Amino acid sequence: LGLAMYASSLCAVSGATFLYHDYCVIGAGPAGLQVAYFLQQASRDYVVFERSHAPGSFFALYPRHRKLISINKQYTGKSNSEFNLRHDWNSLLSHDRRLLFRHYSRDFFPSADTMVHYLEDFASLLKLRVQYNTAIIHVTLEKNEQAWNGHYFLLTDQDRKNYKCSSLLVAAGMWVPNVVNFPGSEYVEGYETVSINPEDFAGQTVLILGRGNSAFETAENILGVTNFIHMVSRSRVRLSWATHYVGDLRAINNGLLDTYQLKSLDGLLEGDLEDLAIVKDKKGKLHITLRFYLENRNISAGIDSITLPQDELDNFATRAPYDRVIRCLGWKFDFSIYNRSLRVMPGKGNIKKYPQIKPSYESRGTQGLFILGTASHSVDFRKSAGGFIHGFRYTTRAVHRLLENRHHGVPWPSTVYPITQLTNSIIKRVNEASGLYQMFGVLADIILLRENATAFEYLEEYPIGVLAELEMQTGRKAHSGLFVIIMEYGRNFSGADKDVFYYNRAVGEAQHAWQSNFLHPVIYYYKHLPTEREMKLRPPDWPLPRPDAIHHIVEDFLTDWTAPNAHILPLRRFLENCLSTDLRNFFAESCFLFAFTHQKLPPFCQQGYLRMQGLVGSQELRHHAVQAGLLPDYTHTDFSGDRPPDSHDGSQEQLMRDHAIPVRPLQHLVNAKDE
């Protein structure tokens, strides 16, 4: 049947005219606009299809009560724009400083209407190529060996217009409501249509199905006017501060937990919704029973002929009738528009609402089809922020970089530094990088070592799920080993049943850094690029295979990893042990001395001093170095002259005279400006 349907769809489009683009993007929500920005910056041929008349149509309706739970922190005490994005969960990435969300709202939790306005400006100010009022209703494949991926994607809209593209980027989000069918489910109101006027619930008794933020948001809105609210769901409540997952219940919506635990009538229950049944009595009240009580009974016969749980258990928890039952079960991906030839299949278990994709965000069934935005959250579901703007703005950029390398031969952006800058480069990134911080455990900075460890190549925010494919995906080579820098929470610190406020929960000593609980940088060292097999066999809950060496930078209360003794020194020694080299910085006097006493100079002296590079010495620097024990104190040394060495006029001849060393053999080592 599937083959017949595929053949018929090909026949239907065989005579049609197609408008071609290299890239087709479905959806002009945040992810669609974000990838459009990157495609436009790269001067690629693309188009974005949006079914509504404006971008961000999801936010025009949701959340129903109009308050977002993505923080909009105006002040951080710092002017570093990259660092500030760590605490700006709404802005998309662009070069235009006007398009920072803080210019649109000062509210910590902004309005969804502001988000709609922001997305409209993002699309218009950047002149993104969005085709509005175009709903894609069918997608299929056309085999063609000349195409990038061996096939073209054929798209049809609601007006039967046809489009062809080489790569399909799906950023349509999750907008199909999750519905559970059970006897009496026709009496249930959906979150998408229920009234948001609290007065409509005055004096009523309400049952809410679900336990996510939409359920608690709905409860928060009517908490002060109802008789009581009960909430039932399959799983226990999960608090975001305990799980460290922003998609779990946020404090802004958890008023019902107070009224439940402080015994103010409201309550939470656990149970499988598919086992429930609802019976409506003559007065319009809704009674909760269990499905097996209705077996072999006619529900339309009336409530008097139906056995209810309280008939056998007189203290049954939901024995009181309800005036309204509201479904708040979230959303799922729309699989209906994709022909079976694309093999866009739902995931399994708790990610069945998402399409199956690889860690590279490419569909498992079809090459060249990428899932972006909220629908790509299966990669890091309940682990990181990939389902939210402050996460998928970075994963979208990563996908674009993968596409640039695959189709246009543009390697992953990188910067080459001398090995002496290794410690500084890591410290800089872990202290300001927003992508590492938001997509912890998912995106990583990769340091590729050059031969003999004299230099390194730095790649930012690469998806670690495809680390084994790094050379193919980035166009960069990893022949001499690599470091992987990621951010992690402690292994046993996150979970719905965890007490994250226990005494002595924080670690402060560098020697115990591996026991850090809060988010902190972790550096993995591999002598060789891990293989695909090693990635599959990695330990449970490990983001990467076992490395040749690993280093945890101890957690910091201020998330400021710049302490010389607690953060920088242990990191430098770890790097030195991995590379068997000395990464310290030296004064010119020390390099000068090493030139006479060592066969091999430290890299800093080789790449700096001997090339006449580095800081010019001064009396203050020398005094500090003496006080710190970094240089001998020559002021108390008995010299043949009348003055100590530090009092010379800076000339090479005078320096040589003070140290009683012949000048000519050392002219290739010392320059007056270096001293």
From TrEMBL:
<dbReference type="GO" id="GO:0005788">
    <property type="term" value="C:endoplasmic reticulum lumen"/>
</dbReference>
<keyword id="KW-0256">Endoplasmic reticulum</keyword>
<dbReference type="Pfam" id="PF13738">
    <property type="entry name" value="Pyr_redox_3"/>
</dbReference>
<keyword id="KW-0274">FAD</keyword>
<dbReference type="GO" id="GO:0004497">
    <property type="term" value="F:monooxygenase activity"/>
</dbReference>
<comment type="similarity">
    <text>Belongs to the FOXRED2 family.</text>
</comment>
<keyword id="KW-0285">Flavoprotein</keyword>
<dbReference type="InterPro" id="IPR050982">
    <property type="entry name" value="Auxin_biosynth/cation_transpt"/>
</dbReference>
<keyword id="KW-0732">Signal</keyword>
<keyword id="KW-0325">Glycoprotein</keyword>
<protein>
    <recommendedName>
        <fullName>FAD-dependent oxidoreductase domain-containing protein 2</fullName>
    </recommendedName>
</protein>
<comment type="subunit">
    <text>Interacts with SEL1L. May interact with OS9 and DNAJC10. Interacts with TXNDC16.</text>
</comment>
<feature type="region of interest" description="Disordered">
    <location>
        <begin position="635"/>
        <end position="654"/>
    </location>
</feature>
<dbReference type="GO" id="GO:0050660">
    <property type="term" value="F:flavin adenine dinucleotide binding"/>
</dbReference>
<keyword id="KW-0560">Oxidoreductase</keyword>
<comment type="function">
    <text>Probable flavoprotein which may function in endoplasmic reticulum associated degradation (ERAD). May bind non-native proteins in the endoplasmic reticulum and target them to the ubiquitination machinery for subsequent degradation.</text>
</comment>
<dbReference type="GO" id="GO:0036503">
    <property type="term" value="P:ERAD pathway"/>
</dbReference>
<dbReference type="InterPro" id="IPR036188">
    <property type="entry name" value="FAD/NAD-bd_sf"/>
</dbReference>
